[in-house]
Amino acid sequence: MSVTDRAGRKRRGRGEQAVVPRAEFQSYYGRPVIKPPSWAAPDIAGYFFLGGLAGAGSVLAAGAHLTGRTTSATALKVSSLAAVSLSAAALVHDLGKPSRFANMLRVFKPTSPMSMGSWLLSAYGPAAGAAAASAVTGRLPRLGGAATGAAALLGPAVATYTGVLAADTAVPAWHGAHRELPYLFGASASAAAAGMALVTGPTHENVPARCAAGLAALADAAAERAAERRLGMVAETWREGRAGTLLRAARYLTAAGALGAVALGGRRAPAVASGLALLAGSACTRFGVFAAGVASAEDPKYTVVPQRERIENEKSE
After folding, report:
1. What is the Cα–Cα distance from 279 to 287, expressed in whole angstroms?
2. Which residues contact 234 (CB under 8 A, 6 or more apart)?
């Protein structure tokens, strides 16, 4: 037996150690394999956050409306209208001119998150506006009630479709978590809406918002952990750099806000502080996920290596 054979057997006996080191996958000249998102962070991450706040807020507003919590219902209807208006403004600003948004309505394509999102906003905005106008003026209560119900029905889709939109891209940190991202955005939106209810509503009406804050915080943490598990090595972009800082801040703020809401939300000052923490945590989640996506698209290893791992996993199954 040759020395090479004995060495090879010895290595294999120690646990199949590779003789040749694993290759490092790089792109030509270190350039990105895919084109990083051209979206501006303040516009699109803000669009994600404000749309979620609006959609989830309409659901809580409908619950408050049905249970006779009129002050909270009015405040949430007005805040949802303001949020969706600012969300649309941020989207139009990123597009460059309003006509580009109108052009997206020329096509109705159920398989396109962008197309469906444009139509969702076009249907949700007037419903949220009518609900808020009726609540503030006290006129046309039946129309206002119908508009409140319509906004609540569309609200969950408005709050989560941006997660589907981001996951539909080739960006590794978004597409790799395509199953979890809509749930994460939905939980984050619910936390923000609960926070808005705590800030704007009276304490004697905020028990449902306090419960929603606790449940949303738990769902947010579970969805984020599930997304990181699925992402594998790409989850590094969720833990490092600007994205890591924002997402850590989001976890602390959301947890603190939920605990404060549940334990101390019956008093005005703690309720407001908890609500502001929940709103800030939700915003940090959206901006953090956006930053992770940009980082994953700019580094070639997050595009090439996950593809290799996926192929190896498919071969082993």
Report:
1. 13
2. 172, 173, 176, 296, 302, 306
CA dist., res. 11 & res. 247, Å (int) = 43
**What are the angstrom distances between the C-alpha of 54 and each of 2, 76, 112, 256, 263?**
73, 9, 22, 22, 26
Cβ density class 119-156: b for 16+ within 10 Å, e for less? ebbebbbebbbbbbbbbeeeeeeeebbebbbbbbebbb
Which SS3 state, helix, strand or coil, does residue 155 take?
helix
- Rounded to whole angstroms, the Cα distance separating 270 from 49 reads 23
Predicted confidence (pLDDT) per residue in 117-154, tens digit:
888 999 999 999 999 999 999 999 999 999 999 999 99
Higher pLDDT, 303 or 229: 229
Q: Under a CB-based contact definition with an 8 Å cutoff, are residues 151 and 58 in contact?
A: yes
